[in-house]
Structure formats: C-alpha cells, structure tokens
Amino acid sequence: MNTSRPLCILFAAVLLHLRLVPTAALLDPTKIAVVLDDVAAPPPPLNSGGFDDSDYIRSSCKTTLYPDTCYHSLNHYATAIQQDPGRLARVAVGVSLAKVKRMSALLSNLARDADYGAQPRAVAALHDCFSVLGDAVDQIRDSLSQMRKLGGTGESLRYQMNNVQTWMSAALTNEDTCTDGFEDVSDDEPFKSDVCDRAGKVKEVTSNALALVNSFANNI
C-alpha cells in the first residue's frame, strides 16, 4: 500500500497550520523581553558616531557562524536591545527558544500521525527527534531564565554565565542529534528533507545564540 501521498497531504496541512501561528505567540511574555508590540515604532536615533542600533546588531552578528541568519532574526529587536551585549544575548536565546518550540510542535503532529503509515525507521527518527528537541527546549528555557536574573559581579557572574553556556551547548548538541537520526531514513519519506531543512535552520539560530552568549561571557 502506498502511503506517501496521504503523508504528503498531512504534512502540508500541518505546515499550513503552523505558518498561521506567529513565532512571538510561542514565547512567554511574562518571562522574556523578546515579545514586543507589533505597532510601528519610530526609527532609533543615530548616536553621535552615526552607529545605530541596527548597525550594532549587524556588527555583533559577524562573530557568529551564520551572520545573515543572526541579523535577520534579531534586527527586529534592535531598538529594545539598545546596543547592550547582555540584552543582545538574552534576546538571541529567546528567539532560539521560539524556533525550537515551533519545530517541536511540528514534530509532535508528524510523529503522532506517522505512526499510522510511515516506515518504522522513519517513525523512530521522528519520535527520537521530538524527544531530544524537548530536552533542547528545557535547556534553552533554563538558559533564558538564568539570563533574566543575572546578578553580582566577578566569579559569581561568570558562574551564572557558565551555566548558560553549558545549557545552550547541550541544546545545540540535541538539535544535531535530531537530524543525525534521519541519516538511515529513506529519501522516499515525504517529510524527511523538510524536517531536516527546518531543523538545520533551528540549529543556525541556536548556534548564533550560543556565540553571542559566549561573546558576552568572555567580556564580563
């Protein structure tokens, strides 16, 4: 029995539903300062050197592995970041959390419905990916919580940032594990390439967040 066509239709429906959910809706506005009003705001004023908030984001993103992804995912928050490296790192972690939660929601739907038709190896890869991304969500959420309550100076502050670096690094490893699980899955599976492509974009955002966290930590 050929199940590829029903799975393709199901996958398309899931993606259409998820596109209707804005990324910001997946964030908790009581916990992070990433969710901003979508009303138009006046452009930030240039400082005396002509280096504005958007320039700061672009310059900071050059230290990451994926500077274009970094800039486009964070520039929306340039006014709120206000050229503050701590705020920049915190917002980057928040954006990473939103991305991985959205990916996890996609996998939840796919894994539940793939049980009724996909190849066993593909089903196992989906469930494993969903599981490790769940761990990544917890680790990034812990990182964001720690970033919000940073305090003290010297060794105390460095210890707190070390926790964030450890959790974000572990989250990135879990995201790598997700895509690794699809290496032995047939390319005939309709969702394989799209899931791996989307997971790759999630990894880019998390990698960038970790780089900005490291940059902030190294300059404490």
Radius of gyration: 19 Å
Helix segment count? 8
Sheet with most strands: none
Percent of residues in beta strands: under 5%
Q: Level of helix content?
A: 55-70%
The residue ranges in which pLDDT falls below 50 over 5 or more consecutive positions are 1-48
Order of helices and strands: HHHHHHHH
Total number of beta strands: 0
Shape designation: elongated
State the end-to-end CA separation: 61 Å
Which structural class is indicated by helix and strand composition?
A: mainly alpha
Q: Taking all residues together, what is the mean pLDDT? A: 81
Organism: Anisodus tanguticus
Family: In the C-terminal section; belongs to the pectinesterase family.
Pfam family, one: PMEI
Enzyme class: hydrolase
Looking at this protein, list some descriptive labels:
signal, 220 residues, 8 helices, 0% strand, enzyme inhibitor activity, pectinesterase, mainly alpha, elongated, PME_Inhibitor
Characterization of the model:
Helices cover 68% and strands 0% of the residues. The chain has 220 residues and is an all-alpha fold. It is elongated. The protein has helices spanning 4-19, 53-61, 67-74, 78-81, 85-114, 120-148, 154-180, 192-218. Residues 1-25 form the signal peptide. Its EC number is 3.1.1.11. GO terms for molecular function: enzyme inhibitor activity; pectinesterase activity.
